[in-house]
Design goal:
The protein is an alpha+beta fold. The chain has one domain: Oxidoreductase, molybdopterin-binding domain (Sulfite Oxidase, Chain A, domain 2). The chain contains nine helices and twelve strands. Strands 3, 4, 7, 8, 9, 11 and 12 form a seven-stranded mixed β-sheet that branches. A five-stranded mixed β-sheet has the order 2-1-10-5-6. Helix 1 crosses helix 2. The structure holds ligand MTE. Ligand MTE binds next to loops.
Length: 319
């Protein structure tokens, strides 16, 4: 797995990385010693605002080694989750109305074993691992996040997709009482996303259950959200309740709303500008609005792993 280092690292970023690594070490020590250290306590000892339960038994991996992770406050305080409002600070303020337990995900469509799986079953049956990925929003901001989760393929295989399964369609919960933003017709609710089957089964495609070693906060898409690091962030659908194998291309929220602005593929591509802004560079969360911008890489830096999926396709047409 190639490691992509950012070139210019600010001092403050180094501090954030050091704090995060200290905190992780502490949690691990506490775990090994059988100390039931609450996340909040661990966080308080070494800084960091963790408020969610720690996910036990998370395996460390080499994904993203050498990248500098963003601050927890950036990743959890500046969000897109229109079910709770359209301001970046709305989800952190309002997403507490979402009830994430109990939670079940229905998996059906073109598969031999359609059914449901609960979150606790997911934690019991599928090993959790940590992967540090770059995350690039179509709005030209980006961050680096230590996700906890597992390859989407590990879940999909349990339901035995048939040879007719060409795509996978995802839906967020629809419940305007818990998600008051759904009372306004800004989007065609529920939020929908989709992947081609080979994209869904790709080893980089993750279902995330946590960040920074802890369960996902509601504003980040608790209890289960998709993460596809080589695609623009809108593909990473949050608070998933339905996964369906389909033979035909699924209707997805932003693609259907504005097909000339947001494609189905949505692969990060600095050579294809959004009609209203450039995609050549991005701002990293934590840096000032007017700070120097970073070059955006094709497929967000994951070209070696995923470019082969799109061989022979005109990426200007299939954007
Ligand atoms: N999922 C749902 N259900 N609703 C949304 O509004 N926004 C998307 C994506 N998933 C969105 C969603 C967009 S545009 C982005 S950039 C990412 O979530 C943001 O993820 P983050 O808030 O964890 O950074």
């Amino acid at each position: 797995m190639p490691i992509h280092k950012r070139s210019a690292i600010r001092n403050s970023e180094i501090t954030e990385q050091a704090v995060w690594e200290d905190r992780r070490r502490l949690m691990k020590l506490a775990g090994a010693a059988g100390i039931g250290l609450a996340t909040g306590q661990a966080a308080a000892l070494v800084s960091g605002p963790g408020k969610q339960p720690t996910i036990p038994g998370v395996r460390e991996t080499g994904y993203g080694r050498g990248l500098t992770v963003n601050d927890y406050a950036d990743a959890t305080g500046y969000n897109n989750f229109y079910e709770f409002g359209t301001d970046k600070r709305d989800p952190a303020r309002h997403a507490h109305t979402l009830k994430t337990s109990p939670w079940t995900v229905r998996v059906d469509g073109e598969c031999e074993r359609p059914g449901e799986i609960g979150m606790e079953d997911i934690f019991a049956k599928i090993p959790q691992e940590e992967r540090i990925y770059r995350f690039r929003c179509v709005e030209a901001w980006a961050m680096v996040v230590p996700w906890v989760g597992f390859p989407l393929s590990a879940l999909l295989e349990r339901f035995k997709p048939t040879s007719r399964a060409k795509y996978v369609a995802f839906e967020t919960l629809y419940d305007p009482e818990q998600m008051p933003g759904q009372k306004r017709r800004i989007l065609d609710w529920p939020y929908r996303e989709g992947l081609r089957m080979d994209e869904a089964m790709h080893p980089l495609t993750l279902l995330a259950t946590g960040i920074y070693g802890e369960r996902l906060p509601n504003q980040n898409g608790a209890p289960l959200r998709l993460v596809v690091p080589w695609k623009y962030g809108f593909k990473s659908i949050k608070s998933i309740v339905s996964i369906r194998f389909t033979e035909t291309i699924p209707h997805t929220t932003w693609w259907k709303l504005a097909p000339r602005e947001y494609g189905f593929y949505a692969n990060v591509n600095p050579a294809v500008d959004h009609p209203r802004w450039s995609q050549k560079k991005h701002r990293l969360l934590g840096e000032g609005l007017f700070s120097g911008k970073h070059e955006t890489l094709p497929f967000n830096g994951y070209a070696d792993e995923v470019a082969g999926l799109y061989k022979g396709m005109d990426l200007r047409k299939f954007f």
